Amino acid sequence: MQHAFPAVRKLIFGFSLLVLFTSCGSIVLPHQKKRPDFLPEYLFKSNKQKQKYLKAYNKTLTLFDVPYEEIDVQTRFGPTHIIVAGPKDGQPLVLLHGMDASSTMWYPNLKAFAKTHRVYAVDYIMDAGKSVLKTAPLNNDQVVLYYNDIFDQLKLKSVDLLGTSRGGWIAAYLAIQPNTKVRRLVLLSPAQVFGMVDFKIFPAVWFKMFPSRKSLARTMEAFATHPENVHPYFRNQFYIASKYGDSRPQITKMMPFSKEELEKLSMPVLFFWGDHDCMNSEKSAEKAKEYIKNVQILKVEDSGHFMNTDQPQCVNEEVVKFLN
Known about the structure:
Layout lengths: L3 H18 L25 H15 L7 E7 L2 E8 L5 E6 L13 H4 L3 E6 L17 H14 L5 E7 H10 L6 E9 L11 H8 L3 H11 L8 H13 L14 H4 L6 E6 L7 H10 L3 E6 L6 H4 L1 H12 L1
Parallel strand pairs: 3-4, 3-5, 5-6, 6-7, 7-8
Antiparallel strand pairs: 1-2, 2-4
């Protein structure tokens, strides 16, 4: 029976992923049954819920300890909200957040990054945040068009790109495109770049399906070595995004990169992974070393997937050193 338990756990995990992640927008999660079918990929069922989220978002903004501005740029898929900071003549650094996190997640890092770079923290249009999707959900080719629209609107000819979790996958995908504008690439515990997720993320799957304060706490414990470092303002915003919003992972569109795809990353790459990282492991590091020509690999001690809050000083110092 002791040997059977891990197998049963993996079976349950696999079924949960099947239900949650293969929907591509077709399956409504238990807490979203009353959501109107005509709504785009990430919206709230009522204006009251949306305002509650925006209030939490704005409260998290008060954690930024550096001057910033909020702007909106138009894309063919809808308006996109961006938090901007740093010298106007600085090298552009674009930040891509993780699922349901929004650009407010960078509150421990923005000040350090903005010392030398012009930072653009983008609210992904199919996720939590202030961007508004006006079309059907985007496929991967459209995601590339979407970010190209942003770069063109901002008149960015060359960018440094940093992505974490799902944002890490998107960042890597943008970087392998022909005529990419990515000068340097930072992958901060990316999701599914080097391999599929495993049962270690089950608490997050459960939280996504049945959001509650209790399941959120379990997710934080599974994803972070120091969940106490996650500020209550951001924790609350993250909870509201999952409870009332409808952001679907679409993980089947985020398949691990092949050898040939990873070899297309010709720019300098910095890959972070944590010693308690539920998304990456020694195998990820080995794959990065073998297939990416110009890669620096940094194993962060006492860190999980939520690396920018687990070890913000290390992340800030290493990113700034790499980019400069």
